Structure to design on (602 residues):
């Protein structure tokens, strides 16, 4: 395991990808207190909300208030999801260091999720990326369903590369490749990264795993063996699966930290503070979060 | 991933290691019906119960009736846990293909678990192994706490090797190395297997992971990269952690099968039948089992 990275950067996506898949409404004041806890955990990147139309994601309807009222830590880069120019304008007004745009490698998933074809999505994202860059912001391009699509099945790495190519051409700084339905096994990660890293530097690639079938930690191990050292994760494993009520969502930051710190990989994140922030949001949600190490530590206390 | 095994043999330990850590009593008739379902799933090895004094494991107090009344599939090898000659005699009377003896690589865990020092345990196991071999049975030696001990912390590979050496000298056919508290990360698996495989053929080694912190699937991946192709797992992830109520126990057979079949590794096991047997025992226990892919499939139906 001598080829593993010495440092891994975690982007905490719980306040965005986590909450957007939870049915419960978390009070704005509680969200703010919780994001403030995350800001003091040592994590370097936090995606604090989404400026998507609240009709689509009611759980994040308070993005502007959250963005205005969280206490910004100068050592943390704050991002938010923006679907279009209107969303970007809100995000810029409220304050972001980084804009996250998103689309799918699967035509059908893109249609279902964004209500547009891939070809129709490109010009919109091009505008958003250009305006965000002009405003001096970093931009991440999320590409979802990079392994499997709930509608189309297996997605070929060439389909993923096609979308990455366009996003990079439009000016994104990096790409987050999403196992949106948490279905990949390590051989799929290998196959995709063999293709992706033939074209792009590993520094441009973030992996975004969901733990729906319990494969995420093994997939992260595999990605690290390819030199990938940036991962998205969600505190406590917050956020379910929109296709299966009760199933696990994003890989839990807690479990990722257990892995990384156990391997001697530096993250700068205080596990204890992550546990505390997990218990805080777990109590507000009123249900046990799926993280294994959270369940262990909580019950062992 | 060209170095992965083509075939992996799973030993289903749910009826033993799973149930022994569950607080609920499962009716004998239900256990039998359930083990019969497992016998028809394509799994080649089932540990059906434990002949430990029922005072210590009340959940398995009906081992003799279970052993007598399950319908034996000639394609399945049936094993049971035996702590001493008395337990072995019961097991032989009832019927086993394989006896499983057990001890710990950690002196303190051995004392806590067996109430004897490691040195005091050896002559007892020597007798059991010899009598089982004389009766024409296979014998597996479980070595627990091979990575970390809840009392002593890190266990050196040399401590594990010391116990393996003795068990093999006494005549066990193979050794199951147990991450009893589910604490290992892949670098620990690597370190242990580097040592173990310098001395023993990989065919003699079975890995037994618990998923307490969500590392088990990644640890199995690592072990397979060392050529290990025998794993213990528990249907649905049945069986908790005696040190932390509510935490996950044995790695779930369901999740292991999702990994293996996804990697194109043959097991001979029908995932659908494993799901059905999981739902059966989940209903009897009256609580959700921790397997991620079980939760996914159940909720997606």
């Amino acid at each position: 395991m001598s080829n593993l990275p010495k440092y891994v950067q975690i982007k905490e996506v719980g306040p965005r990808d986590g909450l957007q898949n939870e049915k419960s409404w978390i009070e704005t004041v509680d969200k703010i207190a919780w994001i403030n806890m995350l800001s003091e955990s040592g994590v370097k990147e936090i995606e604090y909300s989404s400026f998507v139309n609240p009709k689509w994601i009611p759980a994040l309807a308070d993005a502007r208030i959250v963005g205005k009222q969280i206490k910004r830590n100068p050592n943390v880069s704050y991002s938010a999801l923006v679907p279009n120019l209107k969303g970007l304008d809100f995000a810029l007004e409220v304050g972001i260091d980084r804009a996250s745009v998103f689309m799918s490698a699967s035509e059908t998933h893109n249609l279902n999720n964004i209500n547009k074809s891939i070809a129709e999505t490109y010009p919109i994202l091009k505008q958003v990326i250009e305006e965000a860059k002009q405003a001096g912001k970093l931009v991440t391009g999320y590409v979802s369903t990079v392994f499997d699509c709930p509608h189309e099945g297996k997605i070929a790495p060439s389909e993923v590369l096609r979308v990455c190519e366009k996003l990079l051409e439009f000016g994104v700084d990096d790409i987050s490749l999403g196992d949106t339905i948490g279905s990949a096994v390590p051989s799929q990660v290998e196959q995709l990264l063999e293709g992706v890293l033939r074209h792009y530097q590993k520094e441009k690639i973030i992996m975004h795993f969901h733990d729906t079938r319990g494969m995420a930690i093994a997939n992260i191990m595999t990605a690290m063996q390819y030199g990938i050292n940036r991962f998205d994760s969600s505190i406590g494993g917050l956020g379910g699966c929109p296709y299966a009520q009760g199933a696990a969502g994003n890989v839990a930051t807690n479990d990722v930290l257990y892995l990384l710190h156990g391997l001697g990989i530096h993250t700068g994140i205080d596990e204890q503070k992550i546990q505390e922030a997990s218990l805080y949001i777990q109590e507000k949600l009123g249900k046990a979060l799926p993280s294994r190490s959270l369940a262990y530590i909580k019950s062992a206390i």
